[in-house]
Amino acid sequence: MLTYLDNNATTRTDPDVLTAMLPYLSELYGNPSSMHSFGGQVGAVIEEARAQVAQLLGAEPTEIVFNSCGSEGNNTAIHAALAAQPEKRHIVTTVVEHPAILAVCKHLEKRGYTVTYLSVDGRGELDLMELEAAMTGGTALVTTMYANNETGVIFPVEQIGEIAKAYGAAFHVDAVQAVGKVPINLATSTIDLLTLSGHKLHAPKGIGVLYVRKGFRFRPFLLGGHQERGRRAGTHNVAGIVALGKAAELAQINLAHTKREAELRDLLEYGILATIPDTVVNGGGAPRLPNTTNIGFKYIEGEAILFMLNREGICASSGSACTSGSLDPSHVLTAMGLPYTILHGSIRFSLSRYTTEAEIRQVLTVMPDLVERLRAMSPFNNDQAEWLQKRDLAVAT
Ligand code: PLP
Predict the structure, then answer these.
(1) pLDDT tens across 159-193, in order?
(2) Atom 13 in ligand 1: residue holding the nearest Cα
(3) pLDDT at 325 over 50
(4) 198 in ligand 1 pocket by Cβ < 6 Å?
(5) Residue 145 CB–ligand 1 contact under 6 Å
(6) Which of 176, 181, 182, 209 to mutate to test the pocket of ligand 1 (most atoms within 8 A of CB)?
(7) 314 pLDDT exceeds 60?
């Protein structure tokens, strides 16, 4: 049996979503840009999907631009915002963004832009005074995530947006992890541009959306055909678009039931903290997504925990990324200033509407013994653990 608790990485395609999209991978293969009615009928379903996505976001259908993924949305949003105000050369973002933001910012720095990376505190939260201090009349764009993919920590996007607007900057939000998990109403929002990705909300991979506020001076990133009213060239991924429309409709219904997900998440969190010593919830004190928990298990490696969980059929994810053969700790947890003993031993569990109590209880059953065995083998034996703890304390003070 598979226990899938890695839904922030990707989600299972909902069976109803699959049913909705399949005809567009088989008999209804027409191109919506064609002049004949065989293609034209496909154009109608694209507009239906656009309306479904708009409904989930409290947006207007014309503000929805279909694309391929969250990474494309983020790249496009940044380039569009800079093109809209070419005289401005400053960007404000945060240290905990997804690489699809950070890598673009690093690239732009090499091309003469200045980027301010706002810090986070130990709970993963921003200091809005720091944002205020970073803003200037030359700030073209503020881009922040809605919710962090590793910790689930939610940023106060509307407050951020108000500050951005006060300085005449465009405001982009990477809402890839938030859409479908928390209610979003763009009709009453300060957000100009918002990124979402289908595969995080039970649609398949390869479909996404960039929301572009009506009246925003948008410059396309992909040039070519005039699909999406000239805002994104490329033949439509019809099946993906239909799938995302259905997934958005289902996500809207699910928003009323996220309390159940949060209860299961809390059951997991409290269960682990109660039965395993030296554990801590990273970002636990901040507002968080209902489906995410990131737990630090001191004195052991996250990768070892994942390996053992995998043998039990449990899928989770570590806070660490394997870069060039070396195990670098997560940039998010590092930015939170977490001690060494937590940085290297953190695991993210992310739930979905498919998660069952039985799955959570399975994790709670296997985890204490698994952690005890790893700690017994850990090179950080008790003496070293004590030494590390002292070192962490010394660093913290
Ligand atoms: N932004 C965030 C916060 C994410 O978590 C992800 C994916 O994990 C992305 C952007 C990139 O989305 P995609 O995989 O659709 O390119």
Answers:
(1) 999 999 999 999 999 999 999 999 999 999 999 99
(2) 70
(3) no
(4) no
(5) yes
(6) 176
(7) yes
Closest CA to 100 of 170, 197, 213: 197
Please write the tens of the pLDDT for every residue from 334-360: 999 999 889 999 999 999 999 999 999
CA distance 193 to 71: 14
| Confidence category of residue 379, pLDDT binned at 50, 70, 90 | confident
pLDDT of residue 252: 97
